[in-house]
Amino acid sequence: MFLLKKVVSYFILPPGLYVLILLFIGLLSRRRSFVRFLSLSSALFLYLISVEPFKDLLYYPLERGLEVPRRLRGDAIVVLGGGVYNSGELKATSYKRLMAGYRAHLLTGLPLILSGGTATGLVPESEVMKGILEDLGVEESYILTDSRSRDTRENALQVKRICKTLGCRRVILVTSAFHMRRAVRVFEKAGLEVTPYPTDFRFEGRYNLYSLFPKHSVFYDSVIALREYLGLAFYRLFY
């Protein structure tokens, strides 16, 4: 009964519900080969990006070989923002990055550069992060903020500007593991030396029966990975 309840729940809510609808349309469109092909292929694609094994296939190349360094070498710790809600609360990705940066600060005593602006005109993400660090007891003199940047390239340029004022060249870069390769590439191209400090790993590598059922959380993670591949391609073409 428990298994049946779980299976039903996976298919009466998105994305499982959408997979069933697309399958139904495809099976009913026997005389319309294009509609049939489009519906069934869409159902397959939606199913794949909503199950854990395929999600891990997307994340493995992005996170392969990355690990938290045992020895931290740098002149400053850079934390890249990962999003903030209109309410002024950090999204989970941002919070994980911030906590990793906070840990690195406790281990090294290095200053923190918080990089992240806003695309909505509300409170800059870096200022939200700064407030949390101050609540945790970090002295204001150890916190510098970049509230202008809106993407990874602007993160690098604004951080470089701050680093010039500090007289530092090597940074400990804190961001999500899936975003690290692109971030390191952009920061090094801006002229900074980088020690990667990845966090927020998404690759799991362990599965059970439920791993084969479509889930909204897995779909969300897969979309983030696909967007990261687009970002990598864009930066390689234009920067």
Return the string of H and E elements.
HHHHEHEHEHEHEH
What percent of the residues sit in helical stretches (DSSP H or I)? 40-55%
Strand order of the largest sheet: 3-2-1-4-5
Count of individual beta strands: 5
Low-confidence segments = none
Q: What distance separates the N and C termini?
A: 55 Å
User: What's the rounded overall pLDDT mean?
Assistant: 93
Approximate strand percentage: 5-15%
The CATH architecture of the largest domain is: 3-Layer(aba) Sandwich
Features:
239 residues; alpha/beta; Rossmann fold; five-stranded parallel sheet; 9 helices; elongated
List the helices and strands and how they pair.
Elements: H1 2-12, H2 16-28, H3 33-48, H4 52-63, E1 76-80, H5 92-108, E2 112-115, H6 125-135, E3 143-146, H7 152-166, E4 170-176, H8 177-189, E5 193-199, H9 216-238
Parallel strand pairs: 1-2, 1-4, 2-3, 4-5
Helix pairs in contact: 2-3, 4-9, 7-8, 8-9
